[in-house]
Design brief:
Blueprint (H helix, E strand, L loop, with lengths): L6 H5 L11 H8 L3 E6 L5 E6 L4 E3 L2 H9 L6 E5 L6 H4 L4 E2 L7 H6 L4 E5 L7 H7 L5 E4 L4 H15 L2 H29 L5 E5 L14 H7 L3 E2 L12 H7 L3 E4 L7 H7 L8 H4 L3 E3 L3 H4 L5 H12 L7
Parallel strand pairs: 3-4, 3-6, 4-5, 6-7, 8-9, 8-10, 10-11
Antiparallel strand pairs: 1-2
Helix pairs in contact: 7-8, 8-14
Length: about 325
């Protein structure tokens, strides 16, 4: 999980996805709305009518999930931090969510459902949305890769595109599974150990991921071992932690044009000691593929495998 101090930065990270109109499936569901009670990721009972005809997302990754589920036409509004898919989100009303939700702006959009995540939104805000504004709010949580893909399917059920969403979720699972199978074959044929990977969110203050994060599964699927898989705190790690762990590879959500020399300059004690520094295995990656728990993490697994096994995995 990311520390609270990083949430604002994560909100600004871009990613891409596309959605076709919900079409016949959505139109059929409109004729059969049903009042029901569901339990969300926070174990809250949410009373709503399904499928919801108008939805507002309170985190950029949830917008991507809605489009992956084929339900983009159901969106009545997104956050001010949303930027993909640009052709769609640029035309939608936007609401501020940081440092706090603009509840009046949400209410003005008249949503039948608000989608939130406990990694960005405060669970206490659900009381305001459901109480004062009478708007059902469904919370997602993303501790694992499976939870991300399950969220795509769940969103389809909430917004009236269950079949399309189920196919999309299965496709994303398949992408990661194929990466996992391929890297396992690479390791067997080379009789090699998995490289130890340190994934960093920032290069000066060493924010990373603690034990309750889907990123460790991404690293595993890509054929590596996460250096922070057993880390129990969200606090940044120290130079001493890195010197002790001796990572073979350092991957940072610094962007693809990142200069690895900067990391060594910021942490001179690593020179001549940390294998990733000495062997030129410091890589910058596109942040959105890893920091937004949404459909594009599947592409993140592919990109990471290419970095960890460049001679064998290919492009």
């Amino acid at each position: 999980m990311l520390g609270a101090g990083l949430l604002a930065g994560v909100l600004l990270i871009g990613a891409g996805c596309r959605s076709a109109p919900a079409g016949d499936e959505s139109q059929q569901q409109q004729q059969r709305r049903t009042d029901t009670t569901l339990t969300d990721a926070l174990e809250r009972r949410v009373e709503l009518s399904l499928p919801a005809r108008r939805a507002v997302t309170l985190a950029p990754n949830l917008t991507e999930i809605v489009f992956a589920a084929g339900a983009g036409e159901r969106l009545a509004g997104v956050t001010a931090a949303d930027d993909f898919p640009p052709a769609a989100v640029d035309t939608l009303p936007q609401v501020q969510i940081y440092p706090q939700i603009d509840f009046e702006a949400v209410a003005a959009l008249r949503p039948g459902l608000v989608l939130a995540t406990d990694q960005i939104n405060a669970p206490r805000d659900a009381a305001t949305l459901e109480g004062a504004l009478a708007t059902p709010t469904y919370f997602f949580s993303f501790p694992s890769l499976a939870s991300i893909f399950d969220a795509v399917a769940t969103t389809g059920r909430l917004l009236g595109t269950p079949r399309r969403a189920a196919r999309a979720a299965d496709s994303l699972r398949g992408v990661v599974q194929r990466v996992r199978q391929r890297t396992e074959r690479i390791l067997r044929r080379a009789d090699a150990e998995r490289p130890l990977v340190l994934f960093l969110v920032a290069d000066e203050t060493l924010y990373t991921f603690s034990e309750d994060s889907y990123v460790h599964a991404l690293i595993r699927a890509a054929g590596g071992r996460s250096a922070t898989a057993d880390l129990s705190t969200d606090a940044p790690v120290s130079d001493e932690f890195v010197l002790e762990k001796q990572p073979d590879v350092i991957v940072g959500a610094f962007g693809r044009d990142y200069d690895p020399a900067r990391l060594a300059e910021l942490h001179p004690a690593w020179r001549g000691v940390v294998p990733a520094i000495e062997n030129g295995r410091v890589y910058g990656v596109k942040p959105a593929l890893f920091l937004r728990p949404g459909p594009r993490v599947a592409k993140g697994a592919q990109r990471l495998a290419q970095r960890l096994h460049p001679k064998r995995f290919g492009s």
